[in-house]
Amino acid sequence: MSSPPEINLALIGAGITSLTLSIALSQLNIKHAIYEQSTHLTELGAGLGFGPNAWRALQLIDPRLSEIFHRVGTFAGKASTLQHQEKPVWIEFLPGTSTLPAYSVPPSFIVYATHGRGHAAVHRAKWLDILASLVTAPIVFRKRFEGLSQSPDDVTIYFSDGSSATHSGVIGCDGVKSKVRTAIFPESRCAYSGKYAYRALVPLEEGQRLLGEARAGVSSLWMGPGAHLLTFPVLDKLNIVAFVTDSNPEWSSSTSLTVPITKQDAIDDFRKAGFSDAVLELLDTIPGEFKLNKWGLFDLADNPLPVFYQGRAMVIGDAAHASTPHHGAGAGFCMEDVAVLKGLFEEFLGLGLGPKQVEAVFAEFDTIRRERDQWLVQSSRRVADLYELRLDGMGLEEAKNDIEQRQEICWGFDVEEAVREGKKDLRERLKHF
What we know:
FAD binding; FAD/NAD-bd_sf; oxidoreductase activity; FAD-bd; Salicylate hydroxylase
């Protein structure tokens, strides 16, 4: 009996999710190519956070990734590893209106990390470079995805330069503004969440001067009406991410997710929201030469996908479930996606199947992941309102309990069990495919 034809997949986009998936597929010897519209690898933003659920996913994807992240990631507590701390801090929540110096403000409450290694951060561009060094599949640059057409046996993708490529299946890893998502579900477009953010890296010693060494070494979130500010260490820098609820329901640009602003604009936003000098001084540490942007936060909360695939085309990661970042879990959920998809393809290959049944893998992925991924999108909006004291009648203790319960859902997920269940369900699905 002859073996089935070889699977040949296309990954659209060359971000963190795509490169991680490429590493996973290469471990299974699945042929694939990565198509990227840019001229080189780029990653927007500064800090990338992984929680304990992400650690478990990385172990399933490739144990090398878990080991490398553990070496290069910055953990709470002056870059010490969280497993060496008796009670690792996830975030300490601070009153943004306190008139005390930032280093002496008592926390309103603290949420502790659970489920093992806790939470750590790494610079996004550095992690992307590490992933790229482990990718063995071809990355084809200057390939802007424009559309696709499907047949019973394959899918052809079309690029803006007039070229095309034919594969067994296409996986859109092309982020918030996913063109693959638009091609298969035009109605599911990301919408403005009503919040924007400022992101900046400042020298860690500047953060330590205002926050003290201990507070600068953990994640701290300053709560206030209609805004909140998060700080956490990334290597020798302090990452500052300042969030504001917009009085305008529409984003201020029709062409870009970012708008250039000045440091004074950010300070004015927080002064208007009633934040004290402790927070305003943190914003003032942003170097004058730092190119500061206002980032519109878009998600799929209002327009969720009905399913994550259509035929031989599917979306994964932010392309499937773009979320606001308020749980600090978006990247971790993307790693869960990759771990599950790897497990399904592993089972698929073990059954001796070929390109004709690729859609069954995509369908099973949707069954396993969609409910959880879309929960994150909605829950992230909810916790942002908790951080900004926007829920009437809810006190600090109730807010703390709500946040802890939601973080438990993020961190406590058993990705290994999800893979086992997915493999079993895939075998059953293929009997009727």
